[in-house]
Amino acid sequence: MVKDLTVGKAETVLWKFCLPLFGSILFQQLYNIADSWVAGKFIGENALAAVGNSYEITLIFIAFAFGCNIGCSVIVSQYFGAKDYGNMKTAIYTAFFSSAVLCAVLMGTGILFSGALLRLIRTPADVFADSKLYLDIYVWGLSFVFFYNIATGIFSAFGDSKTPFLFLAASSTSNIAVDILFVEVFQMGVAGVAWATFLCQGVSFVLSAAVVLRRLKSFQTGESVPLFSLPILKKFAAIAVPSILQQSFISVGNIIIQGVINGFGTAVMAGYSAAVKLNNLLITSLTTLGNGISNFTAQNIGAKMFSRIKAGFSGGLKLVWILCLPVSLLYIFGGTQLLYFFIDEPTPGAIHTGTVFLRILSPFYFVVSAKLVADGILRGAGMMKQFMIATFTDLFLRVGLAIILSKTVLGATGIWCAWPVGWTTATLLSIAFYRRFPRRLGSAGGPEGR
Questions:
Q1: CB–CB of 331/359 below 8 Å?
Q2: Is the CB of residue 142 less than 8 Å from the CB of residue 106?
Q3: 418 vs 194, which has greater pLDDT?
C-alpha cells in the first residue's frame, strides 16, 4: 500500500506509518535473539558466547546494508513526495546496481578475512572455531541482507510500512522453528543456527523483491527510464556514505569494546552477549522509528511542506518515550529473569554482568531516543555533516571511556558506564542541530502543512 505522508495531521500520519516499522524491527531482532536463545539453551554457554562474539563483526556488514537502505529510502522519498516518478524509478534501479557491487566486495572481504577479524578482537580459543563457522555462513548470505534492506527502504519511501512487517513476521517466526530443527533434530550445532538465519533471510529477500518490482509497474512515467544515473548515484551516496561510515565506525567501536570485554573471560562475554541483545532490541527499534521520521521528513521536503517537520519531531518524541517507559522498567526490575531466557545453565558471573549492564543503561533510553528522533530529521533533510558530528561524539566517548574505566576498580562495570555519557552528550548535539533546521529551510518558502 502506497501512502502519501504529506497529507493529513502530521502526528497521526507519522504514528500510523511508524508503528508497523516498530513491529517489523521487533521481528527482525527475533533473528538475532533466536540465534542466541537456541545457542544458549540447546548447545551451551560457549556457543552463546561464540554467536555473540561473531555478532559484533556481522554488524559491520549490516552497517553497509543499513546505509544503502537509508540512502535509497531518503532519495526515493523525496522524488515520491515531488511526484517525480521517472527519477524515482531511476533512483531505485541505481540503488540496486550500486549496492550489488558493494555487497560483492564485502562478501569477498568476509570470506578471505573472517579469521583475521576474529583474532583482531581477541576471540578466546574455546569459542574461536564456532565463531568463525557462524561468521563464514553468515557472509555467504550477505546478499540477502543487502537486497532485503534496499527493498524495505523502497517500501518506506512509498509510505508503506505494513508490507515489510508482514514479511518479517512470517520469516522471523519461521527462523525460530528452523533454528530448533537444525540444532535439536539434525544436531548441527552453531552451524545450524547460522544456516537457519541464511535460509529465512533468503526467503524474505525473494518475496520483498518480487513485490517491489510489481509495485513499480503501477507508477506510470509515459516512457522508459534510465536504469542508472550518475547524478542520482551521487545524491544516493551523499546520504548512504555518511550513514555507512556512521554505522561502520559504531560497529568498529563495538568490536573494540568487545575486545575489552573478551579480556574478562567467557562468563562476562556470555552475560554481555545476552544483555546486549535486549539492549539492541530497543535501540534498533528506536533507530528504525528514526528512519521512519527520515522518510516523513524527506517526503514533506520533496512536497515543500516544511512546516510539518516540527510537528513530526514532536509526534516522534511522544512515540519513542511511550515505547521506552515499559521497556526501561522491565529491564530494570525484570532484567535478571530475562537473561535466563538466553542461558540454560548460567554462571553467577554471567547473570551479574547482564543485570548490571541493563540497570545502568535503561534509565538513559529516554535520552538516546530523543537523539534518534532528531537524527531522523537530520538525515531526511540531508544534514549529514551535523548527523555525523553528533554520532561520532557518542562513539568516541563510549569507546574511550570504556577502555579507561575498565582499567579502574570498576572493571567490566566501567565499560557499561561509558554508554550514558556518550548518549547524553550526543543527544544535546543532535537536538541543537535540529533546532537549526527551520533556519536552513525557512527561506525556501513552500505551502503550509496540511
A1: yes
A2: yes
A3: 418
* C-alpha to C-alpha distances, 174 to 28, 33, 177, 404, nearest whole angstrom: 12, 13, 5, 43
pLDDT score at 429 = 95
The three grid cell numbers given for residue 3, joined into one nine-digit string: 501512502
Q: Mean pLDDT, the chain, as a whole number?
A: 85
**CA-closest candidate to residue 172, choices 68, 67, 281, 65:** 281
Region 23-45: mean pLDDT is: 71
Backbone angles phi, psi at 409, to 5 degrees: -65, -15
Is the model's pLDDT at 428 over the cut of 80?
yes
CB 60 within 8 A of CB 110: no
Question: Rounded to a whole number, what is the largest CA-CA distance in the chain?
Answer: 70
User: Pseudo-torsion of CA 201, 30, 23, 324, nearest 10°?
Assistant: -140
Q: What local confidence, expressed as pLDDT, does residue 179 receive?
A: 80
CA distance 91 to 389: 27
pTM beyond cutoff 0.90: no
The mean pLDDT of 176-188, rounded to a whole number, is 82
Of the candidates 87, 66, 86, the one whose C-alpha atom is nearest the C-alpha of residue 75 is 87
Rounded distance between C-alpha atoms, residue 418 and residue 47, angstroms? 27
Closest CA to 115 of 186, 65, 53, 162: 53
3-class DSSP string for the chain = CCCCCCCCCHHHHHHHHHHHHHHHHHHHHHHHHHHHHHHHHHHCHHHHHHHHHHHHHHHHHHHHHHHHHHHHHHHHHHHHHCCCHHHHHHHHHHHHHHHHHHHHHHHHHHHHHHHHHHHHCCCCHHHHHHHHHHHHHHHHCHHHHHHHHHHHHHHHHCCCCHHHHHHHHHHHHHHHHHHHHHHHHCCCCHHHHHHHHHHHHHHHHHHHHHHHHHHHCCCCCCCCCCCCCHHHHHHHHHHHHHHHHHHHHHHHHHHHHHHHHHCCCHHHHHHHHHHHHHHHHHHHHHHHHHHHHHHHHHHHHHCCCCCHHHHHHHHHHHHHHHHHHHHHHHHHHHHHHHHCCCCCCCCHHHHHHHHHHHHHHHHHHHHHHHHHHHHHHHHHCCCHHHHHHHHHHHHHHHHHHHHHHHCCCCCHHHHHHHHHHHHHHHHHHHHHHHHCHHHHHHHHCCCCCC
Show the cell assigned to 417.
558506564
Q: What is the pLDDT of residue 445?
A: 38
Nearest to 278 by CA among 97, 85, 448, 37: 37
Confidence of residue 440 (pLDDT cuts 50, 70, 90): low
| Radius of gyration of the chain, Cα coordinates, nearest whole angstrom | 21
